[in-house]
Amino acid sequence: MEIRLGPVRAWMVCHPDLVHQVLMDPRTFDKGGPLYDRLRTLLGDGVGTCRHQAHRRQRRLLQPGFHKARIAGQTELMGEEVESVCREWRAGQEIDVSATMLTVSARVISRVLFSDSLDAAKAAEVHRCLVTIVRGLFLRTVVPVDAPFRVPTPANRRFRHASARLRAIVDTVIAERRRDTRARDDLLGVLLTAARSDDESAAITEPELRSQVLTLIFAGAETTSLCLASAFELLALHPEEEGRLHSEVDAVLAGGRPPGSDELPRLVHTRHVLTETLRHRPPGWLFTRVTTKETDLAGHRLARGATVLYSPYLLHHDPASFPDPDRFLPDRWLPGQAAAVPPGAMIPFAAGARKCIGDTFAMAEATVAIAYIARHWRLRHLPGHIERLRPAASLGPRDLVMVCEPRAQRPVGTPPRAPSLAPRATQTSGVHDPRTAGGDDVNYA
């Protein structure tokens, strides 16, 4: 259907088959439109924002950093960061789950990207910059003119300062690593090796180096933290699913340590919980593409340069693909049921050649985090909790505060207790409305 983004005409693709057509033909439907135009200004032409003709080369340069064997070797550091963040929790303490999950994901991506090159003070400043930038990004995405953002309002000044500081921090770390001759097995090391290559087809320029680092920081920190915060919010509203999760992690993580690469395949229900969270509340809920030539789509003739939008949120809540779509049902992802999902209906990481390069990494990190926390803690909503989803560049709870309770460990194989029939604090779940769904961050796909 045709919609308007200010003075710009755009086409909203709502059927899974058509979305699949768009995503599987990146030559015709290239990354572009208001979202990516703004992201390029902020991040440069990294692997998440570059045009089609540059993407294959950039992805090939980064791919060694995301091989499955390498990710398997990183599960220990993922567990270390989750354990470190949760170490200070106390029974009955109110935890800012949104901020805590961002801390976990930011620490993990910092170690994977920089090893020990980002000290605590710089890491904290990176987090602050990210929060400021992503809060201002959605408005810049939907307003197609720049004039309002040139006015020196406090919000615009904060956005510009945060953007400049983030780039400056990244430039400083890159410069320090160039001077440091010690070998480090991290993603920045992969990029620096490419930057020193004599092979022109494999070499990476200085602007590209910065763009890739900025892109990986954004993608690595935001999407996983939003998924985890959403998962804990939904689990607390569905105690039967929470109980099944607890039974599985009790059985698999008998020693109480974070899961390693050997335990991850055994956390089947845990992965179903995360997959259903990504269906129910995908962090990236709205994306744009731009046609590179005149083309037909669903019987409509689109001119070159036409803006095309698709929404994972709308697709994931289509009852034709997902019966009773507003219910949180991890069993949708049992093998027999998952096979019935139409192509293009479930796309939390996009699809095709532009599918998120870090999807396997993100799922491994989220599985480690939710399994370890659920093994030791139960997170409860505050009395009167209301699920609020606001329109912004990505979807997820921005200020979720919950109470942590230590779990009394049951013997392995003991079924969870039946939910108590005693009165509970009121927990009202907001109705999911695709017109108002959103958060305050940015996702890339």
Order of helices and strands: EEHEHHHHEHHHHHHHHEEEEHHHEEEE
| Total number of distinct structural domains | 1
Q: Decide which structural class fits the backbone.
A: alpha+beta
Give the oligomeric state.
Answer: single chain
Widest sheet: strand ordering: 1-2-8-5-3
CATH architecture field: Orthogonal Bundle
As for the CATH topology, it is: Cytochrome p450
Any idea what the radius of gyration is? Answer: 22 Å
Overall shape: it is globular
Percent in strands: 5-15%
Query: What is the β-strand count?
Result: 12
CATH class: Mainly Alpha
Please outline the major beta sheet.
5 strands, mixed
Give an account of the 3D structure.
With 445 residues, this protein is an alpha+beta fold. The protein has a single domain (2-428), classed as Cytochrome p450 (Orthogonal Bundle), CATH 1.10.630. It has helices at residues 16-23, 34-43, 52-62, 68-73, 75-86, 97-114, 120-142, 147-150, 154-179, 187-195, 206-237, 239-252, 268-280, 312-316, 335-338, 359-376, and strands spanning 2-5, 8-13, 29-31, 94-96, 287-291, 295-297, 300-302, 307-310, 377-381, 385-386, 401-406, 427-428. Strands 1-2-8-5-3 form a five-stranded mixed beta sheet. A three-stranded antiparallel beta sheet has the order 4-11-9. A two-stranded antiparallel sheet has the order 6-7. Strand 6 (295-297) and strand 7 (300-302) form a beta hairpin. The chain is globular, with a radius of gyration of 22 Å.
